[in-house]
Amino acid sequence: ELAYTTLNRRVMPLVRYRSGDITRFVGRPSNAGLPVRRIQKLRGRVDEWTVTSMGNIAPWMFESLFSGFEGVGGDWQIVVQKEGNKDRIEFHLEGLNGLTEAQLRERVLRKMQSEMAAAWKIYGMGTVLLDFHVHPKGSLRTDRKLKRIVYKRIF
Prior knowledge:
With 155 residues, the chain is an alpha+beta fold. The protein is 21% helix and 36% strand. The chain is built from 3 helices and 12 strands. Helix 2 (101-115) crosses helix 3 (117-125). The radius of gyration is 19 Å and the shape is elongated.
């Protein structure tokens, strides 16, 4: 999480002001030769984190999983629910080119195994259930902004 400190403000200096934005520092110097530390593009917000049995998840963790994925549209959503003593995580994806749920499941699980090793290990232990649903293009977005993770767990 990005935190600011500035003592230049006389009336109200910001000391370790927590922004709520998730990012990291860039290790290489800027092209302009400025002697200041730079940050990467903001990846998300701290309040977007959701606690699951698969670990803490946030939308930015799945962007690389679904980006450039043949047969999957740009909009996707993850729904977290409770089923017995296990979490059920549903991936709602826009299907393109007539992709079936079985084909989509196989492709996503293969990519998850290689890119999200910790989550894959937890899935392999059977403590979390994964479901995949294919939706027509444009059907997931009902408002201006699509909520990427929907939390529906009831205890």
